Structures are given as structure tokens and as C-alpha cells.
């Protein structure tokens, strides 16, 4: 049985106490058997989110919800209800004018993600349902974007305390800074809130950094070039990036757009807080799902130390099988559950690093270099998107930054502003020429060398005939091709929609294809995740 919601919109998407999105208001939902292509039914939904094809011909399919979700993506991108702009959105995308309607904050800080989500929204809002992705495909694409955007971030790490009971004779090391008895537990999670590593058993008086170092000595490894996000209770190292100390930031204030980052440290801390929030959410969900982690038990101490590991395993299983979490909101009232009166007040984790692990201290200088490089790269991108570039090229403010930056990087090159501008135009022409040449038959591209490869001499002859400027790139690398692509793709005229009166139009037959209308079963995770 497939379930079509019919009225997926922002007002019907709510967050529960664990900050997990839930789709509400299911009164208009319609069930379809898996052998149905669709169903003709009375139109229900909200104008502005409703599938236009469904609105016109009253045929409901699984792709109707895809259109609804595309409207939600558009609302997030433009910062307002999509009713007035939705009909023109695809035209704006095809014409490369999407920046005219994007919310300025999304444009300034979204980068490649904003562009990718914009393209995804456009495919979801296609008038022809056959050309829309399924909701499963949309979910996969969004998860891919998340992994691509944070491909060097393995996940996030934090420490938390779990109450214990123990013989008073050996209790002293387990007494934490709030004078309660606990074990210090280190958890790592990915950006799907799945727990990927856990270390249990350390005394409550131990610092988070000591627990992390112990985990490293016990086999916990971070792949080379990757890193976890940690809080201020850890040393900043190449494998564990911490925020800048002494730099104030308020996530809610930034999130509402009242104040934007004023330097690279604030920008890094803001982005860091957004990502590291995953481990805080994971720990919050874990403890709410398993209240035993909030009280001391009278099991043997060895078994008490294993309880967090068992809870983490079941947490992952529940998430992996899309378990029902609605009971979380009702469990405090269940007489069979642990009363909140018995919960033990324990620390959340260390807020400051005490420099108590020499092995980590020796890596902080290298960690600071890596963090600064990441933060400066983020800041440069942020400033460029914010002030320096428009759809028609660089702004005067942009050139004020480019020219001094060029001279700082190449102090022995005495180019004037005009010469730098001419060189920028030349590089743009070279890029467009190579881009066209790469698309020709018989041509390949060597990513390592950054150059065109054509084994057949006649192929090169044809390329040079069709694209004379490409002659200078015969057996010559052009290593900045990809960088120029990031700069110019989507900013230049390419005639993608052009045709002449001698050519047939590209209109496709709108006859319904039965295979395209087959409704596949939609699992609950399509709505709950």
C-alpha cells in the first residue's frame, strides 16, 4: 500500500521534542495499491503547493507529493510563500536568473548547496510528472549533497555523563564536578544522527580530552585528511577541529539574519555550531529514548558501564528500521517508566580544554593551521559572494579586492588594473574554448595533468579548425580549468534552449505512459525523516 499525503507544505511539517521532522495533518491522505497507476479523485490540497497537473486533470500519483515537496524547497530558497513565484520559477532557473529571487542570506551563505537545491527544486516542480523524481530519489539526492558538502567531516564528538552507583570505598574518582557519581562517556555520530563510536567506563572526574586520548590508544582512528568536530573541551588538532575560543556567536541570532559574521573566526564558529549540533541532538535523543541513562542503577558496576553501549546499539537499530518515536512524548506519564524525579543532575561535558593531554597539545599548532586555512577559505568565498560578484561579472568592490590581492600574491608582477582585467577576460575565453573542445567526439580529459587528450591527430586538426584558440593547448596543460568552471559555469550564454525555424521543436508527446504512472510504495521514512 502506498500513501499519498496530498497536502505536504511547510505548515504541516512540525518538529518533535527530539528535533525530528514529522508530517502532520494527514486527513487528506489517500492510499493506493501497488498495482494502481494513479487514481482520479476530488482535488484537495493548498494552492501554491498543490501539483498543478493534479489540479487540472484530478489524477493523483506518487509524483504529486514530489511537487508538494518541491514547493517547500522553493519556500526555503526564497524565504517566503511560493504562491506568487512558483509558476515562473523554472523559467528563472533555465534563464540563469535564479539569483534574482533567492533569499539574500541563502545566496550569500549557501554556495554550491544553494545551487544544487535550486536545481533539485526545479526538477520536483516540473509540470510533467514523468520528468519529476520520486520522493525516494529526492531523499537520496539530499543525503548526497550533505555528504558532498561535508566530505572531510567524518562526524561530531562529545562527552556526556551517565549516573552510576558504586561502593563508597572506591567512589572518589567517579565523582564529577557536580558532585554526582557518573561515568564519562564519549560518543561520535555521523550527520544522520547514527552513533558510530562509543567509549564507556571512564571515571566521572576524567576530562573529555583524556577519554578521547584513551579511545585513540585503544584503536579509534580518523582517516587521513578527515576530521571530527569537537567542542571547546578538546584540543584543536588536525583530526579533531574545535571552535575558536573567545569568539562570541549566537546561533539563533545568526539564524534569524539579524547579524552576520564580521570575520573569518565568527563565520567558522557559526558553521561549526550548525554542524556540531548533530551530536548534541543524538545524545538528547539517546537519553530521552532510554531514561536509564539518567539514573544510577544497582547492577554490578561492570554491567552499568555497558548500558550506554547497549542503548547506542538499539538507538541505531531503531533509526535504521524507521521505528515509531511518537511514544517519546508520552513516556513521562507512563507509570512503568522511570520517574523524572529520580533523574540525576550530571554535567553535559567539558566546556574548556585543560591542556591535560600532552599528546594532543603537541598537535595543536598543526591543528590551528588547518582550522585557519579552512576558516579563511570559507571567509573568502563568503566575502566574494556577498560583495564582489554579480551575474554580469565583478563589481567595483570586487576589483578593489582583486587587484591588491593579486599584487600581494605576485609582488614581482607589475600589472595594472586594466592588464589584470584583460587577463581575466583572456582566461575566461580560454576556459569557454576548452569547454567546447572537450565536448567533441574522440576527445578525453586527463584530470591529473589538466589537459585535453586526443590520440588521433585528425581529431586535433578538427578541433583546431572549429576552435582556433584551442591550438595553443595541444599537449599543454591548463590546471585551472576546474577552478574557472566553478567561477563561470552558469554565468555565460551557451544557447542551451536555442533553435531555428529549420529545426523541429523539442516538444514531447504528453500522452500518458502507463509505466510512468506506476505508484511505488512509499515507506513511512519518506515523511518522518
From TrEMBL:
It comes from the Eukaryota. Residues 1-146 form the Protein kinase domain. One of its GO terms (molecular function) is metal ion binding. Its cofactor is a divalent metal cation. The keyword Membrane does not apply. Keywords: Metal-binding. The keyword Metal-binding applies. Pfam families: DDE_Tnp_4 (PF13359), Myb_DNA-bind_3 (PF12776), Pkinase (PF00069). PANTHER family: MYB_DNA-BIND_3 DOMAIN-CONTAINING PROTEIN-RELATED. This is Protein kinase domain-containing protein.
Amino acid at each position: 500500500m502506498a500513501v499519498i499525503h496530498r497536502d505536504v507544505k511547510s505548515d504541516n511539517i512540525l518538529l518533535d521534542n527530539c528535533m525530528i521532522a514529522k508530517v502532520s495533518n494527514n486527513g487528506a491522505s489517500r492510499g493506493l495499491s501497488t498495482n494502481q497507476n494513479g487514481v482520479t479523485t476530488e482535488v484537495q490540497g493548498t494552492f501554491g503547493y498543490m501539483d498543478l497537473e493534479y489540479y487540472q486533470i484530478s489524477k493523483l500519483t506518487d509524483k504529486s507529493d514530489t511537487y508538494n515537496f518541491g514547493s517547500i524547497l522553493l519556500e526555503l530558497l526564497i524565504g517566503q510563500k511560493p504562491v506568487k513565484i512558483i509558476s515562473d520559477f523554472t523559467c528563472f532557473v533555465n534563464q540563469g536568473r535564479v539569483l534574482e529571487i533567492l533569499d539574500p542570506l541563502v545566496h550569500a551563505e549557501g554556495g554550491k548547496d544553494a545551487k544544487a537545491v535550486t536545481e533539485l527544486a526545479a526538477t520536483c516542480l516540473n509540470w510533467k510528472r514523468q520528468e519529476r523524481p520520486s520522493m525516494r530519489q529526492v531523499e537520496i539526492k539530499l543525503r548526497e549533497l550533505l555528504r558532498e558538502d561535508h566530505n572531510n567531516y567524518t562526524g561530531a564528538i562529545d562527552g556526556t555523563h551517565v549516573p552510576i552507583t558504586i561502593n563508597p570505598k572506591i567512589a572518589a574518582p567517579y565523582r564529577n564536578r557536580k558532585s554526582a557519581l557518573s561515568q564519562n562517556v564519549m560518543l561520535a555520530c555521523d550527520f544522520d544522527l547514527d552513533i558510530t563510536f562509543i567509549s564507556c567506563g571512564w571515571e566521572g572526574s576524567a576530562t573529555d580530552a583524556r577519554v578521547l586520548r584513551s579511545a585513540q590508544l585503544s584503536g579509534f582512528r580518523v582517516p587521513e585528511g578527515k576530521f571530527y568536530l569537537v567542542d571547546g573541551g578538546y584540543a584543536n588538532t588536525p583530526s579533531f577541529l574545535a571552535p575558536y575560543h573567545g569568539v562570541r556567536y549566537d546561533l539563533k541570532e545568526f539564524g534569524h539574519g539579524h547579524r552576520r559574521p564580521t570575520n573569518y573566526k565568527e563565520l567558522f564558529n557559526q558553521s561549526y555550531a550548525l554542524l556540531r549540533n548533530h551530536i548534541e541532538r543524538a545524545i538528547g535523543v539517546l537519553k530521552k529514548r532510554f531514561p536509564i541513562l539518567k539514573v544510577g542503577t544497582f547492577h554490578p558496576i561492570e554491567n552499568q558501564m555497558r548500558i550506554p553501549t547497549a542503548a547506542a546499539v538499539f538507538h541505531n537499530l531503531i533509526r535504521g528500521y524507521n521505528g515509531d518515536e511518537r511514544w517519546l512524548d508520552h513516556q513521562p506519564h507512563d507509570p512503568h517508566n522511570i520517574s523524572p524525579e529520580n533523574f540525576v543532575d550530571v554535567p553535559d561535558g567539558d566546556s574548556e580544554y585543560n591542556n591535560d593531554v600532552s599528546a594532543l597539545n603537541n598537535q595543536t599548532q598543526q591543528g590551528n593551521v588547518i582550522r585557519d586555512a579552512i576558516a579563511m577559505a570559507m571567509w573568502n568565498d563568503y566575502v566574494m559572494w556577498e560583495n564582489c560578484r554579480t551575474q554580469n561579472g565583478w563589481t567595483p568592490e570586487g576589483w578593489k579586492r582583486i587587484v591588491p590581492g593579486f599584487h600581494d600574491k605576485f609582488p614581482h608582477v607589475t600589472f595594472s588594473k586594466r592588464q589584470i582585467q584583460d587577463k581575466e577576460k583572456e582566461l575566461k575565453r580560454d576556459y569557454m574554448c576548452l569547454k567546447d573542445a572537450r565536448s567533441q567526439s574522440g576527445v578525453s580529459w586527463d584530470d591529473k595533468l589538466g589537459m585535453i587528450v586526443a590520440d588521433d591527430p585528425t581529431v586535433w586538426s578538427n578541433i583546431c579548425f572549429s576552435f582556433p584558440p584551442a591550438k595553443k593547448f595541444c599537449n599543454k596543460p591548463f590546471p585551472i580549468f576546474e577552478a574557472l568552471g566553478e567561477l563561470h559555469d552558469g554565468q555565460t550564454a551557451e544557447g542551451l534552449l536555442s533553435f531555428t525555424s529549420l529545426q523541429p521543436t523539442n516538444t514531447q508527446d504528453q500522452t500518458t505512459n502507463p509505466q510512468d504512472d506506476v505508484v511505488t510504495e512509499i515507506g513511512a521514512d519518506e515523511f518522518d525523516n
